[in-house]
Amino acid sequence: QVQLVESGGGMVQAGGSLRLSCTTSGRTFDNYALGWWRQAPGKVREFVAVITNMYNTYYEDSVEGRFTISGGSPGNTLYLQMNSLKPEDTAVYYCQASGGFEYWGQGTQVTVST
Description:
The chain is an all-beta fold. It contains no helices and eleven strands. Strands 2, 4, 5, 6, 9, 10 and 11 form a seven-stranded mixed beta sheet that branches. Strands 1-3-8-7 form a four-stranded antiparallel beta sheet, with no helix packed on it.
């Protein structure tokens, strides 16, 4: 059974940092892109960052320069270092693997207070 499990969420004050992790099991993702998405209350799920199977990284404009995605193959543990957090970063953060199939984790809550 393929599983993606996020961890590392929590509550932090604005300006603080958190590091999210996503551990994978059940298969390897050598030819997959691994990424992070987020969904705030009442909003659609939105792209945050991705690392491709060629280790290229891409970011949503509002997190560029503050968030860093790393990991992926070969260990398939994915990370998201989030610095200079803002209240608008508050959301449930999801790990995603996309390639021949698409897999999602259950999400981890990040709350940034003023």
